[in-house]
Amino acid sequence: MQPTDEQRYMRRTGIDLVRELPWGAHICLFYETPKDLIEALADYFAAGLEAGEFCIWALSDPITREDAIRHLRKSIDGFDDHLKSGNIELIPGYDWYLDGDEFDPQRIIRKWFAKLGDALAKGFSGIRVSGNAFWFETSIWSNFLAYEEELDQTLVDHKLVALCTYSLQACRAVDVLEVARAHQFSIARRNGRWEFLQTPELAVARREIRRASDGCCHILWEELPGLDLLTSCERVALQHVVKGSSSKEAARTLGISHRTVEFHRANIMRKLGARNIPDLIGRVLGKVDGQ
């Protein structure tokens, strides 16, 4: 049976908390121990290889190339064949991100997309990448954060999934907040257990979700065709679309980035089959008016 367009668009992550995400997903993972990091990445790349994606791991401390190969070989069936065939590439993180002592966000993003172009030309379905942040308490940190924000903006509508990893041991509280704002999803793996990242911003979003589910905006709970396909976050985003809020206005209310709001809005339109925002609003309000 041939996969549907929806199945081609959604990608299995290998991560229990977020089992499927669309192309263009930009995920942040905070890890407690090196074991947490390598186990999470093994599952993440196993899902990508199974889906015919080209995988790239930009390695840095605390994981060596030998560590990565040893664990991936134990976790992924046929890993040596994948590595020999060029389905997965393990590259030194320092060499990938730095040109001498210079960190250039534009240059790195161009390199990711060059890899994407090569992979698509070779018949891969897309690419799946990961890199570990090793910039804390250095002059590079502010530039690296700017890179994460720009990458988040750039990934939309491209066949690329990115998982950026950060050590909880090395993070200050302000680092966690800054990093979370630069990604669509932020999760943590602590001693083998998955957790959603708890931040003040996410608490605001959850309160908004609860408020909507209590009936403050009845539009979201009408029998709108396709409504069951939306996640709780997407339903809250739909509420703001119907109210006429811009992405930036909704982002300020929810305490998340406007890029994340746009990400949810694009998913809502795709799932509900709307051509554009006026069409989406017409479908929702038309349904409500017809009750």
Explain this structure to me?
By secondary structure, the protein is α/β, with parallel strands linked by helices. 51% of the residues lie in helices and 16% in strands. It has 13 helices and nine strands. It has helices at residues 5-9, 34-50, 65-75, 79-85, 93-97, 105-121, 141-154, 173-181, 200-216, 232-242, 247-254, 258-272, 277-289; strands spanning 10-12, 20-22, 26-31, 54-59, 88-92, 127-132, 160-167, 185-190, 193-196. Strands 5-4-6-7-3-8-9 form a seven-stranded mixed beta sheet. Helix 9 crosses helix 10 (232-242) and helix 10 (232-242) packs across helix 12. The longest helix has 17 residues, at 34-50. The chain is globular and about 60 Å long. The model is unreliable at 3-7 and 205-221 (pLDDT under 50).
CATH class of the largest domain: Alpha Beta
Please count the helical segments.
13
Q: How many structurally independent domains?
A: 2
| CATH level-3 fold name of the largest domain | Rossmann fold
Percent helix range: 40-55%
Name the structural class.
Answer: alpha/beta
Number of strands: 9
pLDDT < 50 runs, ≥5 residues? 3-7, 205-221
Arithmetic mean of pLDDT? 81
CATH superfamily name of the largest domain? P-loop containing nucleotide triphosphate hydrolases
H-E order: HEEEHEHHEHHEHEHEEHHHHH
CATH architectural category of the largest domain: 3-Layer(aba) Sandwich
Strand percentage: 15-25%
